[in-house]
Design brief:
Number of helices: 2
Helix content: 10-25%
Radius of gyration: 19 Å
Shape: globular
Distance between the termini: 24 Å
Order of helices and strands: EHEHEEEEEEEE
């Protein structure tokens, strides 16, 4: 974190559990495993992404207000008519001196601000094989899409992701790539 000054672009490679499919059925339908013998808890999500982290001076509220002002300027206005005020975090405690790290129940998380023009590259695997989670046969167990950033007033919301360091495989920061080996590897 000593290399992070203000807002800094980083790239990440992560491995997490999938969060798009429910384990159990809805409204009386059997669970996914009982119906098609696939346990959604064991589907892994592999992501490569670019985003911003904040070394301390720039907060989530600042990112959103900067986006509001940029969108207003792009629309030919001097300044946004809206001002965004963020509430407190719903979980975890910011590590002092940075907006990039959060501690929760003894684990550390990296706070990544995802920008609309940097779409992550995502692949799912089940039993170590590529798995298409978007197939229609999984619709019965699909969770509704989240409407992230609806309260920001932006056309392109600032999406925040908190990554447990155990799920991060690689971080590239200031042209240096750091490989992270999880404790359970």
């Amino acid at each position: 974190m000593a290399e992070v000054k203000g807002a800094t672009f980083i790239s990440l490679r992560t491995v997490t559990k999938q969060t798009s499919l429910n384990k159990g059925g809805t409204k009386g339908t059997p669970g996914m495993f009982e119906s098609i013998s696939i346990n959604p808890d064991t589907i892994k999500k592999y992501s490569n992404m670019v985003g911003l982290i904040s070394g301390g001076g720039v907060s989530y509220q600042d990112f959103v207000n900067n986006r509001l002002n940029k969108e207003a300027k792009d629309a030919g206005k001097d300044k946004s008519q809206l001002t965004f005020e963020s509430g407190p975090r719903k979980w975890g405690t910011k590590v002092e001196g940075t907006n990039a790290l959060v501690e929760h129940k003894g684990k550390n998380y990296l706070v990544l601000y995802c920008l609309a023009n940097n779409k992550p590259i995502v692949e799912h695997k089940y039993n170590s094989k590529v798995f298409n989670i978007n197939e229609s046969r999984f619709d019965t167990w699909r969770k509704p899409e989240r409407n992230e950033g609806d309260n920001q007033g932006t056309e392109k919301p600032i999406v925040v992701r908190d990554y447990n360091f155990e799920s991060i495989r690689e971080i590239t920061l200031n042209k240096t790539t750091y490989k992270i080996v999880p404790d359970n590897a």
